[in-house]
Amino acid sequence: MSHTGLVRNGVLVTNFPGTDSIATVVEPGAVLWHGDRIVAAGRERELRFPSQPDEVLDARGGMILPGFINLHHHFYSALARGLDPGSPMRTFPEVLDRLWWRLDRALDAETVALSAELSVADCIQWGCTTVFDHHASPSCLRGSLDIIARTVERAGLSAALCYEVSDRNGHDEAIAGLEENIQFLDARASDARIRGVLGLHASFTLSDATLAEVVKRRPSGSGCHVHVAEDPVDVDASRHAFGVGPIERFERSGLLDRHALLAHGIHLDRDAYETIARRDAVVIHNPESNANNGVGRLDIVNATSAGCTVGLGTDGMSSAMLRALRAALLTLRAGRADPSVGFAVVPELMRNNALVARRFFDEPLLGELVPDAPADVVVLGAQPPTPVTPANVVGHLVYGGSETPVRHTIARGRVVLRDGRHTTIDPDELATQARQAAPGLWDRFAALPWGTSFLGE
Questions:
Q1: How far is it, in rounded angstroms, from Cα 160 to Cα 156?
Q2: Taking the model in full, what pTM does it have?
Q3: Other CB atoms within 10 A of residue 170 CB
Q4: 143 Cβ partners below 8 Å, 6+ apart?
Q5: pLDDT exceeding 70 applies to what percent of the chain?
Q6: What's the count of helices (H) and strands (E) in the chain, helices before strands?
Q7: Closest CA to 65 of 381, 446, 428, 439
Q8: Which of 360, 378, 409, 416 shows the shortest CA–CA distance to 159?
């Protein structure tokens, strides 16, 4: 029998603002759901209940929001916290070569699963109910997406998963990664909560032969999730090796369309942004990761003025979407040395995440709290100290919500965080398991050489 739930006594925000909508704010508001669907959302005293809910959650005056969506994550990085690369890293290619490309090779089935569970637990803790993950584990390649999918399913979230195709370890491994993507895409084509997309690392580590095979074998209508121009090396090495930049190369191959997710997009010129916009592809901003890696920043004013749809991700730095939203605003202002810029473009990031996610899941109301929408709901733990209006919702999220613990997380009608406590994951036991597994992973990491050559170097 389907579960009926109610979250009440909060400041209800039914949608994030964007160019196509303004936020709707209702206080005191409530959301009623049955099974995995929202039945009603609005002013609490005006809601009609066909029967007594099985569970009632008290928002205690906090903001009730649509579950957050993360368009670019890396679950596999979860066990890197505190890891010493053992060598200085002064450039982004060195960060890849000496840290991430060694860590992914050190992963085995146990640490792939643990990394996914740690990341999923973090998503729940911060109210993220739908996540797009980009995975790599060359020593545990076949079946790795199934391992992650089972973890996501047990936890109760929704996800679009992919494996990172790259020639950095040779063509045979690149094709094995492509096959992992294709089998997962086929297996999950009609799954309501777990979907597959094609994962590519970046243009500068993809040979023409591999890219041609991707194009040839790409299932009709499938998405493509790829890093683009995170660092100048992607643009410069692509031009050196292939004669064109990454955007022109992907456009020529036919991969640049409305299901193309382009993570980062920092070092692109106006023509590239206009090409992305013309093809209705999506640029995904990852401000915290970009700052951490010292690769520069996406100027979202420039990208959006060229017509690009810009979404938001965390790139494995965390799973806290409101903190990423705050970073998007602050890095934009710092980069432009202009405290007046930002609120014309930053509010659209969360709305765009919802609109883009709808392209990959058969859910035309995903990201809204309205009847028949998926019952993905997050409740912030603190009451807003000042009035919340349609015009200032994002200001509340950036300057207050980003630092506020989440009280409740509901994913497709399942309460996965209740009063700040997990219901599907034991975080203490998980941390114990992770601490036991991390030393072995780190030893394998330390034993691996660095100095991988990649295309265009």
A1: 14
A2: 0.97
A3: 12
A4: 109, 180
A5: 98
A6: 15, 18
A7: 381
A8: 360
